[in-house]
Amino acid sequence: MSVKQFKFVSPGVFINEIDNSGRTDTSTAIGPTVIGRTERGPSFTPVRIESYSEFVNIFGEAIPGGDTRDVWRNGNYTAPTYAAYAAQAYLKNSSPVNVVRLLGAEDPNASADGKAGWQATTAYGLYITPTATRSTGTLAAIWYCEAGTSVRLTGSSPNNAQTSSVGTLVKNIGTDYGFKAQIVTNSSVAYTTEFNFNEASDKFIRKVFNTNPTLTNGSIGSTSLSASYWLGETYENWLGNVDAGHDVTGSSLGAGSYYGLTLLLQSEGASGANNQKDHRKPFRSAETDYVFSQDMSNDTASFGISASRTPNLFKFVTVNAGLWEGQNFKISIEDIRESVSDDNPYGTFSVVIRRAGDSDSAVRFVERYSNCNLNPQSEDYIAKKIGDKYLVWDDSEGRYREYGKFINRSSYIRVVMDVDVDAGLTPAGLLPAGFRGPQKWAGIGIASGTVGVKTEAGGATATTVPVKANSGVTSFGFDIASAWSASFIHPGHLPRVDSTSAPSATRAYFGYDSNKGKSSTLYSRQNLDFARSLCDGLYDAQFSATGTGSIALTRTFEFTLDDLSGSVGSNSVDSTPATMYWASGNRAAGTSYRGTASFGAMLRKGFDSFTLPLYGGNDGLNVKEMEPFRNSAINTGDTSATNYAVHSIRRAIDSVADPEVVDTNMITMPGLTNQGLVTRMITTCENRSDALAIVDLKGGYQPNTEANGSEQDRKGDLETVVTNIQALQVNSSYGCAYYPWVQIRDPEKGAQLWVPPSVVALGVFANTERRDELWFAPAGFNRGGLSQGASGLPVLATTERLTSKERDSLYDANINPIANFPNEGIVVFGQKTLQITPSALDRINVRRLMNYVKKEISRMAGQVLFQPNVEETWNGFTSMVEPFLASVKARFGLDDFKVVLDKTTTTPELIDRNIVYAKIFLKPTKAIEYIAIDFNITNSGASFED
Question: What is the widest separation between alpha-carbon atoms in the chain?
């Protein structure tokens, strides 16, 4: 290539690779980038990991799949996380690894089919009410159904007639809010069961109904276990606490018999907005509501939680997007103290991240930030101590933009400051005292009179329940004998109403109560459901800064320490009550513990702590998929706008496309076989010119996450794999592929599972670097022996044992066989790249050598940028490069080399243009792949010397 073919615009080092090895036919450690799903952790941002223990700490353990226990609540552990095993394989032998976690992202111009998340055909809610003629009832459970399926209660109606229908009041059976229900599909009863809301009972609702959404997907898994519905949210502890008067609205289900009915959960009107069946929405982080200040006035008569009396201070957002953080953490504010110095009027407080399942009797801290304040100029400013930076992906430019001022010191949360606080415009005496929210669906009212009787989807008189506050609703009715007026409340996070379950009144964290009830120290698993984001129409409305973000929403409660109340006769800071109580409105009613005293006086008595929930996080994934990024769900022609999986994977690949942003030498997404996305990964490596793509191939083994049927039916076909790679028409030394899949044993859990060949191939690359050099061939019995632990994972079998002829067929197609020999075991038996054109670069060891050499010499060249363009500088560059290449040669990377940088390459014309032009000639050392030996049989009298 002539120097004239370089494009010189801005200063830089310009390197070109010239392959003259064609033949006729006959520094800081740099690691790979692994893309894929993990249990938790940062999403769509490459994170450098140095050890597997660090990987587990940030991204969670590798998941072998097969765990179908309450998938809705526990999360998707049904499918393996191949990326985690690939990272483990590499980190067992070498380091580092860059990990890019996949979640469900959405193209800004996504069509309806291209939206992230999921939706069911219908959603049915179970409402329970104490009487058949009047009441305030509550939502107790939600089922999600596919086409033609409904959930009916069956039993005695208010007039003692036997009934089985939707929208009909049915009397309870036994205790614990027990009922009998039918799952009806295409007018036939598919399943009937009794259930209740007692977690210890065999009839507990989550034990007798399907809680695995993936069973509704007929394209994957086992058809014999398929289902037409799944049970989603249940509010077992909410029911008990409403009965006990715990609900902050003052509602109570009452005692005695109960009635239940199932109703469609969707809004009125043809638009279907706020429809509970629709959760098509991209990933997002969990948040708390805004923390606000104490009431600075001693005027209690007009007190109310408002922007003027209790201004916002800050809120918290999880650093990592997704549902996991909101389900596993909560945040407490504690040790709130007024200033005791005239020189520093700002008070202090501590922020504590806690395990969601702990109790005030056994607090489990995750992170603590002590002595925070609200002074923007202080080193202890809360935003500075915890961090407020965040990244926003720019789809048009394919890169991240960073916002915020302070580096994130917390691994889990960042702070969002109120703009007035951040500008220093608020009074210095403000301290955190409470928080707004959390938000939930508003209650609904049913006007007198009956309208219609049929409430199932598709019916001529179909009736729906709105999830918005609306007085005088007359668009739905129920199959009952007489007119009925009622209202329903919807479940939400429970507040702590007294200190009875805490070790003492002063050690109680008021605010959010994550336990089963006011006297319990046991964690309530219904909080796993409260942590979820709301349906699509309310997705962005649940975190408004003030008030309610939507007519469909209301706040479950608004908490402030100002509303704490002591026992009777002790509503004064002059005494310390044995039990402390909270109820909204105590201060306005003149019954608060603080009374007219200062906020600091109450704090000094030890009532200085409260807890907030994190909620609203979302993975953006289709819960009906075992593998949300399965290849068989990506159709030919799908784009970012028509398939969220395509958009998500493209975004992940694009996040590592810039070599100036991410230092990596390999890129892989184990299990990805979609040919368009595989090509994009290879092209990305070509454009970087310093990385090798390890790809998996279409047509081989399909796990049950990709298809249904027997394992024999999903085995795949070698000829199909070869045909597909040929149809891909890739001619690139920046990609490589292996075949077939292998079976491994999870070193931590002992489970056996099939993994794509890229998983163990990545481990072999690491093993090669550890044993020898990265430019040695990552194959053969010395470095590719999988049965001998070369991959870092225990390899047990291959999906098929390749014959010699099949290995030849694969190698002719530039696919590296994984062979299974009787004595030597399982071995990686090839090291070709996907380059069709014969040259030295059709071998992995040469490709990796060139990537390494180019990157290292590029760094050396960077040291002479902007130096004088004279022979002394040229000689300095040469004196760096030649010893480096000599070292590579001594370690069997090169047979020979030559560096030319003098007046013959850098002419006066180039000097005038501020250019240095060097030529480097390399003879890569080839690996032995073929051994030919002649065995000559001679007569007895023959001489060997002849």
Answer: 124
Q: How far apart are CA 144 and CA 71, in angstroms?
A: 14
d(CA 9, CA 926): 37
CA 696, 698, 701, 707 torsion-angle sign: positive
Q: Residue for token digits 């007198």?
A: 448
Amino acid at 621: L
Model pLDDT, residue 489: 81
pLDDT tens sequence across 784-794: 999 999 999 99
Contact 421, 346 (CB under 8 A): no
pLDDT at 298 over 90: no
The candidate with the shortest Cα–Cα distance to 650, out of 666, 674, 686, is 674
What pLDDT score does 271 carry? 43
Alpha carbon distance 372, 464 (integer Å)? 49
Distance CA 463, CA 475 (A): 7
The C-alpha angle 467, 470, 473, rounded to 5 degrees, equals 100
Residue 255 has pLDDT above 70, yes or no: no
Which residue in 809, 827, 833, 831 sits closest to 736, CA to CA? Answer: 833
Question: Coil, strand or helix: which one is 802?
Answer: coil
Cα separation, 360 vs 335, whole angstroms:
15
pLDDT tens digit string along 186-203?
Answer: 999 999 999 999 999 999
Alpha carbon 543 to its chain's center: 20
Give strand pairing partners of 171: 259
**Beta strands, E only, 157-217:** 162-165, 170-171, 179-185, 188-195
- In the predicted structure, residue 472 carries a pLDDT above the cut 80: no
Q: In this predicted structure, which of 78-87, 172-181, 437-446, 775-784 has the lowest mean pLDDT?
A: 437-446
Q: Are 820 and 802 in contact (CB under 8 A)?
A: yes
How many whole angstroms separate alpha carbon 733 and alpha carbon 761? 16
The string over 80-113, giving b where at least 16 C-beta atoms fall within 10 Å of a residue's C-beta and e elsewhere, is: bbbbbbbbbbbbbbbbbbbbbbbbbbbbeebeee
CA distance 311 to 295: 9
Confidence of residue 385 (pLDDT cuts 50, 70, 90): very high
First to last CA, the chain: 51
User: Would you say the pTM of this structure is higher than 0.70?
Assistant: yes
Calculate the alpha carbon distances from 787 to 155, 311, 748, 772, 802 in Å. 61, 65, 18, 19, 16
Residue % of the chain over a pLDDT of 70: 86
Tokens encoding 871: 């022979």
CB atoms within 10 A of CB 870: 11
Would you kindly state where each structural domain of the chain is located, as residue ranges? 32-110+622-633+640-837, 118-264+443-489, 291-372+418-440+494-613, 852-946
Percent of the residues in the chain that have a pLDDT greater than 90, as a whole number: 69
| Rounded Cα gap, residues 60 and 55, in angstroms | 7
Under 8 Å CB-to-CB from 208, ≥6 apart: which residues?
Answer: 193, 194, 195
Residue in the structure block whose two tokens are 């030559």:
898
CATH code given to domain 32-110+622-633+640-837: 3.40.50.11780
CA–CA dist 792, 148 (Å, integer): 49
Lookup: tokens for 793: 């994972």
